[in-house]
Amino acid sequence: MAKYIVKRVFLAILTIFIVSLITFFAMNLIPGGPFNSEKALSPAVEAALNERYGLNDPVPVQYLNYMARLLQGDFGVSLKTGRDVFDTITTGLQVSAKLGLSAAAVAIVCGLILGSVAALNRGKLIDRLVVFFTTLATSVPSFVLATLLLLIFSIQLELIPAWSAENPNYILPVISLAMYPMAYITRLTKTSMLDALGQDYVRTARAKGVVPYKVIFKHALRNALIPVVTYVGPMVAYIITGSMVVETIFSTGGLGSYFVTSINNRDYTLIMGVTIFLAFLMVTANLITDIVYKIVDPRIKLD
């Protein structure tokens, strides 16, 4: 296990390096710059700003300088606001983490329950309803669902207040983010449960007179969790940092909305900071997922 973790850590570092390399050179290929705006700056002012932030250097030199500062824990400052990038990520992450973890919890719990119920009632009315619901949920993009929920419940019916910094309401954003992964987890759980319920060890347990709920939760569901765990790890990381459109619609001020703003503003340091943080979160989630495999099923060997 320790040898595997060390190997994965080295691969994670390599992955983050490649992501940072591609992102840095790609964003410098995009026309425009951080100091281009509707109100044009004078050539002297723009030249002074480029000189101050090292944007006059060749792109490879800029990248090496950025990585040297990053290895010292310096994410730099925003080219638009002058605010420390690490502080910006921390502030946005507080909102995104609470929103994302709530959505992930709803998706996992509801998905496991609905998937198990559908598997245990295969071919019955409740199974057909679950299949219809999951198909509908996977067909509607999250930004469309978020817009509809905001329009219906906040504007038309005025049942749920819209998001505000003074009174943040997580209900609609959580539903918008949780709907698709919940439907996907439901389908994964149902398929895995049906496969597990047909295995010899389940039939043997039933033949020995094991209580039905123990057969379901101790034997069938535990073995059916492996495909779900595979999906849940990256899903949690993606929901926390990848909910850009939903956060923008509800104006939550989370990490996703900061990322969208940084791209629009060509804020190079903020783009790099958020991208590297997202890459770190994704590789960490994948590593944790592999370790959870071992906990769920000790027969799995990590090489």
Describe the structure.
The protein has 303 residues and is an all-alpha fold. Helix content is 76%, strand content 0%. The protein has twelve helices and no strands. It has helices at residues 2-29, 43-52, 59-71, 85-120, 125-139, 142-156, 171-197, 200-207, 212-242, 244-250, 255-264, 268-296. It starts with a helix and ends in a 7-residue tail after the last helix.
**Strand/helix succession:** HHHHHHHHHHHH
Largest sheet: none
Mean pLDDT: 81
Helix content: over 70%
Question: Brief description of this entry?
Answer:
This protein is an all-alpha fold and 303 residues long.
Short key terms for the protein model shown above:
76% helix
Give me the secondary-structure topology:
Elements: H1 2-29, H2 43-52, H3 59-71, H4 85-120, H5 125-139, H6 142-156, H7 171-197, H8 200-207, H9 212-242, H10 244-250, H11 255-264, H12 268-296
Helix pairs in contact: 1-12, 4-5, 4-7, 4-9, 4-11, 4-12, 5-7, 6-7, 6-10, 7-9, 8-9, 9-12, 10-11, 11-12
